[in-house]
Amino acid sequence: MMSQTACFSIVNLLDREALSNAEVRRLIGWQALILVDLLRRRCVTLRYAERMLFNLDVIQRLERRRLKDCVEVIDWGMQLEDWEEHTPEHLVDALSIIAQLAQRLLENGRREK
To answer: How does the average pLDDT of the chain come out, rounded?
Structure first.
């Protein structure tokens, strides 16, 4: 139940447009970095990460706001289950790419202030 609430909160924030684009970039960047770290340490499952952030509801809201850089991070996250299933040896690489993209969001979000 808690994970559904957290996901709803992000979607709700994006729907209400309560955050500026820079704030959204920072939010998505931090959330993605946290989830990548937790996934690497096997503290959460891919399904949990999908419910929290890497899902179609979030992508749709980001697309409406035309935040392509955020969409790219979420899209990579949505593909993690495929990586795990078909090429598990490259899952670590995919997590690294998500972390790099998320870091870029944080940098862009800081510049936009």
So the answer is: 90
Q: How many CA atoms lie within 13 A of 58 on its CB side?
A: 29
Q: What is d(CA 112, CA 47) in angstroms, rounded to the nearest whole number?
A: 32
Cα 59–65–71 angle (5° rounding)? 35
| 113: confidence class by pLDDT, cuts 50, 70, 90 | low
Residue-range domain boundaries for the chain: 2-108
Give the whole-angstrom CA distance, residue 87 versus residue 98: 16
Structure tokens at 36: 């990548």
| pLDDT above 50 for 19 | yes
Classify residue 28 as left (phi > 0), alpha (psi -120 to 50) or beta.
Answer: alpha
Could you tell me what percentage of the chain is helix, strand and coil, using 3-state DSSP and rounding each to the nearest 5? 85, 0, 15
